[in-house]
Amino acid sequence: MKILAVDYGLARTGLAVSDATATIATPLSCIPSRNEDRMFDLLLGIIDDIKPDKIIIGLPLRTDMRQSEMSVKVSAFRERLENATGMDIELYNEMYTTVIASRLLHQNEKKSKEQRGIIDSAAAAVLLQDYLDKINRQ
Asked: What is the torsional sign of CA 96, 20, 73, 44?
């Protein structure tokens, strides 16, 4: 089962995909998000190319697990994507994924400026790997 993870952002949207066995997450490219309609069209093209069996979108909850302003935007984006693809799309808590991705990139000697173009996809990969590990433990 191939799974696509989306780390929706206002500036960039990061993407990651699993292997066919839903074991390993691999970061894909980032899509510029300042123009949401353009980003949405690019994302639909990627979905058409990858043909995932499932899509998850990172849900940015507050540390007390309540909705944030961004989580409301993500929920609306999910609904729009579900309508366009006809797929059931799962929201998955993305708390600390960007922090974890940044630390991993730092460990691999990527300076903060170098991370800017890849951090969102790395965060999507962290999100997806956490999801894969969870479903594979069950």
From this structure: positive
DSSP state of 63: T
pLDDT digits (tens, 9 = 90+) for 71-120: 999 999 999 999 999 999 999 988 655 545 555 555 555 544 454 557 78
Amino acid identity for residue 96 in this structure: Y
Q: How is residue 10 annotated by DSSP?
A: S
- The 8-class DSSP code of residue 118 comes to T
How many angstroms separate the CA atoms of 110 and 126, rounded? 16
Q: Distance between CA atoms of 135 and 109, rounded to whole angstroms? A: 31
All domains of the chain, ordered by start, with CATH?
A: 3-137 (3.30.420.140)
pLDDT in tens, 111-131: 444 545 577 888 899 899 999
Q: Are strands 89-93 and 54-59 parallel, antiparallel or unpaired?
A: parallel
Inter-residue contact 89 to 77 (CB < 8 Å): no
- Phi then psi dihedrals of residue 29, to 5 deg: -80, 165
The phi, psi pair for 37, rounded to 5°, reads -65, -40
SS3 of residue 123 by DSSP: helix
pTM: 0.85
